[in-house]
Amino acid sequence: MADTSRWEARDIARIAVFAGIIIVLGLMGPIPMPGLVPITAQTLGVMLAGAVLGWQRGAAAVLVVLLLVAVGLPVLAGGRGGLGIFVGPTAGYAIGWIFGAAAVGFLAHAGARRLTWWRVAIASVVGGIVVVYAFGIPVQAAVIGTTFGETVLTSLVFLPGDLIKAVLTMVLTMLLYRAYPPAFPASVRRARATPRAS
């Protein structure tokens, strides 16, 4: 696993920066998409946190955001915050963000190999969509009193927007990987600096 090395002091700063990015993306409000339901950008921040920071640090960045939510700060999309978030219909999605970011980071950084676009893309879809939905849909169904199947069907309207966010995560992560390697954990930077076997 790429992300088991000891944390550096600047990892705390990276976690804080990505927590801030997740919050700022939530404050942007819904983005109209032609032919699709409006999408919020906050999940993009969750995917990016995992893809850039790795599984531990990415999950930590999301946890910071959720702790701010728990103390009542309106840092979620739509200016929402408070403990009520964790008992409402979207509670599963919020908790799923932690595991989603961890899954993105684990899959994208697996084996301390160089980051590749296809690995980041797969990680973003699996972690940022499949894992988050796996937590969110059952909780939503239980809270609002619909069947699991009905909730899956109503959630599918958000899938195109989430796929767009997964693609954006891949593009932005690879651009950052080439332009500013210090944004990534030491294990990823070491793998990047290692010459490829001929």
**Content-based structural category:** mainly alpha
Whole-angstrom Rg: 17 Å
Architecture per CATH nomenclature, i.e. the level-2 architecture = Orthogonal Bundle
Write out the strand line-up for the largest beta sheet, numbering strands in chain order: 1-2
Helical fraction: 55-70%
What is the domain tally?
Answer: 1
Task: Please work out how many helical segments DSSP would assign.
Answer: 8
Query: How far do the termini sit from each other?
Result: 24 Å
**Strand proportion:** under 5%
For the record, what CATH class applies?
A: Mainly Alpha
Q: For the report, how would you describe the main beta sheet? A: 2 strands, antiparallel
Shape: globular
- Along the chain, the helix and strand elements come as HEEHHHHHHH
pLDDT < 50 stretches: none
- Report the mean per-residue pLDDT as an integer: 90
Report the strand count. Answer: 2
| CATH-derived topology | Arp2/3 complex 21 kDa subunit ARPC3
Describe the structure.
The protein is 66% helix and 4% strand. The chain is built from 8 helices and 2 strands. It has 198 residues and is mainly alpha-helical. A two-stranded antiparallel ribbon has the order 1-2. The mean pLDDT is 90. The protein has helices at 9-27, 42-53, 55-70, 91-108, 117-144, 148-155, 159-179, 186-193, and strands spanning 31-33, 36-39. It has one domain (9-191): Orthogonal Bundle (Arp2/3 complex 21 kDa subunit ARPC3), CATH 1.10.1760.20.
